[in-house]
Amino acid sequence: MDSQVLVALALSLVGGLSTSLGALIVILNQAPNLKMLGLLQGFAAGLMLSISFLDLAHNAINSIGFLKGNLWFFAGVIFFAIVANFIPEPTLAPISDGNSKKKNGDGGKDIAKKHRRQVLFSGIITAIGISLHNFPEGMAIFLGSIKGLRVGVNMAIAIALHNIPEGVAVALPLYFATESKWQAFKLATLSGLAEPLGVILVAYLFPSSISPEVLEGLLGSVGGVMAFLTLHEMLPLAFDYAGQKQAVKAVFFGMAFMSASLYFLEISLPEDLSL
């Protein structure tokens, strides 16, 4: 394996494994109650929407034009809307208080199981979305390391800081749903490992096999998939558990947080290299 690829892989591991730090923040604390979970799911939805609209779709439109960028984006939306019809969804159970659970006995346990299935499904969706988002970050680290080791190191540090809240967003619902610290930590870590996979992809397939226009279009489609998943799965859960007003505030806080993170990541890159 080429030495440049090895250096880029090492740097991408630094950035990608920072999702593990986010997971540690979650698992070193107690699992949240349903209202706090709803707020944090709203925050995670804001992260996902910001990545989808203000990063992936925005870059696709700027790179390949408004029409093509939108066509790729909505192709992703339509594709996953079709796929979603074949994915069995857990039924969302109404929130009950402690007294009603005591009265209902086994019914209360069934409701709790339904809550956990819904949250688990949302956590898996978040992990998939963050993994897809991490691919281009790995590509950017590879291209940056080609320009020079200092550029690659600076990018890896910036991306590492950027990825910590993503680790929180992945680990939190999984920890709540499974009550397993190991499962939450494992899946958050795996979502970060998409970055070294991005390095391998760009090193051996780009630009010889994938044209820049097709790559940007595919990333725009990823944005469409993430937007659909967020609006279809994550927001209903946040609304139900935290209430509409509080959940909406959490969504915009998440969007603002990720937008600021993307901005500081962007200004840390060289002018001729961007995510």
Show the helix and strand layout.
Layout: H1 3-16, H2 18-27, H3 34-64, H4 66-84, H5 98-104, H6 106-147, H7 149-178, H8 181-192, H9 194-205, H10 212-242, H11 244-267
Distance between the termini: 25 Å
The whole-angstrom Rg is 19 Å
Mean pLDDT: 79
| Beta content | under 5%
Helix percentage: over 70%
Which series of helices and strands comes N to C?
A: HHHHHHHHHHH
Described by strand count, sense and barrel closure, the largest sheet is: none
- Care to count the β-strands? 0
Any overview of this molecule?
The chain is mainly α and 275 residues long. Helix content is 84%, strand content 0%. The longest helix is centred in the middle third of the chain and has 42 residues. The chain is globular. The two termini are 25 Å apart. The relative contact order is 0.24. About 5% of the residues have low confidence.
